[in-house]
Amino acid sequence: MDLEFKLKGTFRTSADPADAKETIEQLFEEAGETILTKGAPAGQGAQIRSWNLKENGVEVEIVSGRYVRAHDAIIRLRKPLAGKLGKEFHIGVRGVDVDHFTISVPAEQSVGNLKIPHVSSMEFKDGAITLELDVGESELENRVPDRILTLMEDKINEKLYGGKTEHWNLLWESEKKEPKFTQDPTPEMVKQGWIKRGASRGQWIHGPQSTKLFRTFEKIVYDELLEPLGYKEMIFPKLIPWEVWQKSGHAKGVYPEIYYVCPPKTRDPKFWEEVSDHYKVTHEVPVELIKSKIGDPIGGMCYAQCPPFWMFLQGETIPTTEFPITVFDRSGTSHRYESGGIHGMERVDEFHRIEIVWLGPKDDVLDCARELHERYMHIFNDILDLEWRKAWVTPWFMAQEGLTGISEQGETGTTDYEASLPYRGEDGEWLEFQNVSVNGTKYPSGFNVKCQSGEELWSGCSGVGLERWTSAFLAQKGLDPENWPDEFIKRFGELPEGIRFL
Fold it and tell me: Whole-angstrom Cα distance, residue 43 to residue 354?
């Protein structure tokens, strides 16, 4: 079946419209050929299935498909109906009541029992999910039914999408390399005193040895990629308000994975005195009491590093000669609540990245992506000597926004770089340790960034995760510098001594 809307509603009138029956009939017949078909392909406009008069209203039943949706149709009818009744019969139209409204969405399977605002019931039957909506005139005007439909189509597509592995296409693979190490590097780093767990979940404290590894990777990225390609350093905020995530699209589903930020209701020491006194007496932090004294969440800690950058460009028109704009940020940590997915150093709640962002007309953005791929290949082959591969994937946020087809053409989408982990065995899962994403118009459009020439703007981003690089490198080469590639040792130098304990 196709998408179907069924709406039964009533135009509330200031008096009995019985005397206007012929006029209303003529208006509805004309509307079926004019205002209810405007903008729709032939034969796919909305239809008035039935109507009748009530003592103080005009009841109407409208059905439609995807074009000129029933809720748009009843709003379109309101003004001409009010004009006819007012001018000829001195009867006012005081509003629209929605008596019954359903949307049937084609689906191969149920999406479960979801709680969606303004949806009173949901049923899967005969290849469709039927939603019964609890909406009024203001929700119709504010296009709430359209957003409910978009949400449902997203959830149906998510079921079909089935995870990244179903949208994974191998692009290139290095030759097999004999591993110098076959153990999980994280426990070995702990054993040798390179790292210790932090006080917070999914957090590590890095000693001099692993810190030097991080700084060496940063230097390699800067010397071999960022500086030659002309990227300029910026500092992006690490506390992200809701406004940013609304514009970037992350507000659609970021909630289970962010660390929330709540400001105090006031800085007045008197307001907080009982908290301080409680701790002084009990030596326990009164978390429940603190909850009552903090405000609502204003956003969260940095989750995806590039969205706050776009506030720098928001609403601006940029001269054509400025493109491509190429920048990077390495100023702080990112935070992601990984739940049960924490493992070793490669999957953590607090991590360190260099975020690379570029912006310009489509061809410029695709050229920048190609240059990054070339530089990464040089680094991973000639300096780190890794066994790795790269694959084309469609990230969920693009499938969610209907960009899967474009991604398959090799333009919009993500290339993942994956490294073998010898300790997981010959057929074990590889580690995604790098990516390059071409995001199309997603960010320029979301933040209203324009080009002087009027040309459509695209953007891309690439995150260098230092924990992931370290995990991939040490899993293959081990912790003994004697087994590290010469080109890397040239840049790393001597392994520093760690901190000794008695």
Answer: 53
